[in-house]
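Section handout 9: paired folding examples.
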Amino acid sequence: MYTQKLFYETNAPKRHRLFEKDDNKCPKWEESYQRLKAQYDKNGIIGLLGNRGGGKTQASVVIIAMNSKKGKKGHYTKAQEVFLNIRDAQGGGENGLVATFEKYTKPDLLIIDAFQVRSGTEFEYRTLVTILDKRYDNMKPTILISNDTPEVFADAMGDDAYSRMQEGGGIIQFNSEDFRGQQ
C-alpha cells in the first residue's frame, strides 16, 4: 500500500489507493500497464482508451505512485473539473486564469480522467489544448483517460493535439475483461 501523503498531494482517487500491483489477477491489464509504463518515460501525451472497468484509472494511479517515488509531482483530475476551474477563473473566481493554467502545466505528470465527458465552451477547449501543448513543449508526460474509441478520441483531441500525441505518446488500449471484478 502506498503512503497517504503520496495520494493527498496527487489527488489520486481514494478507491484506487488500496490497489497493490503485485496482487493483480488480470494478465491483459498487466500487458497494457507495461505498455503505459514504457510510453510514460517518453514524456509525451498518452491516451488510455478502452471499455469501462478495464483498469485505465488504476494503471494511471500506479504511474502516479511510481512518479512520486522518484520525487516528482503528479496531479490527477477529471476533465469536467478542468473545465469548471477554467470557467471559475474566467468568472472572477478566487483563482485567476493564470493560476488555473499553472495548476495543470506545473506538475511533472498530469492525468485527466473521463476525457469523454467534455462539454466546455470553445474558449475552455482551446485552454485545455494550450495546457496540453505547453506540457508537450516542456516534455512533461500527460495521460488522458477515455472510454472513447480511437476515432472519436482523435476527433475530440483535434488535429494539433492529436499530432503532438503521436510523438512520444500515442494510444494504449485497455481491453481487459472487467478489471473491477478481477482484482
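Moving on to protein 2 of 2.
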Amino acid sequence: MPQVSHALAQSFIALSSPLDQDDNLDRALVRIAQAACAAPVGHDEAAVTLALKGKPEVVVVQGPASFALEQAQLASQAGPALDALRNRRVTFVDPISSTTQRWPEFAAAAVEHDVTHSLSLPLICDNSLFGSLTIYGMDSEHFDRSDLDRVQRFSQYVATAIGNAQTYWRSVEISKNLSVALETRDVIGQAKGILMATSAINADQAFAMLRDASQHLNRKLRDIAVEVTLTGRLPRDPEQHDKAL
C-alpha cells in the first residue's frame, strides 16, 4: 500500500500543475491522462478514454494489456470503458473470462493478456462528461470496496483537472480571438483614414473601397487594410497592372 500511496501522491502533484505549463489543450489532456494512468491504485494497468470531439478516443494507456483491451473496445464499439462513458456510471467486471458474453471482443483480449478484472469510471465535472478512466487487474487480488472508493475520488480529481484545462484553454482562445479582432479593427480604421485623406471620401466610402478590393482580389479584408497602411494605396489587380504596362 505505501507504493500505491506514493503513486497517488505523485499523480495528485502532476494533476495540480499550473494550467499554463502546456502549449495547448491537447497537450494538457495528454499530461492529465498520463498522471491518471500513473496511479492504478494497487492494480496493474490503466487507460484513459476521452470523448471531447464527438467520439471516444484513447488518449493514454499504461501498458500492452490496457492498449490491447482499449483497442478491442474501440474496434467493436463495446466494452466497460465505453459503457462507463456512454451511461455515466461505474462499470465493474470481475471476473473477466472467455465466457463473458456481454463484450466478446473485449473478453477475448482480456483472456489473451491475462487481465482478470476491470473497473471503469466516468470522468464527470460539473455535469460535463469528458471520458472514462479504466483500471485493469491481472492478479488474484481483485477489487474491494476501498479500491472503488479510492478510484472514485481519484477519478473526480482527474475530471476536475480536465474541466479546468478546458476552461483555461477556452479562455486563452477567446482572449487571442479578441486581440486579433481589436488589431483588425485598428488596422482597418487606419486604412480607412488613409483612403479618406488621399481620396477625399467619407468613412463609409473608404470601407466600401476596402471591401470591394477584398472581394475582387479574393484576399482577407485585414490583409488589404495592412497593405494600405504600408503603401498608402489600395493593392492593384496584377492582371490589370500588367495590362497597364
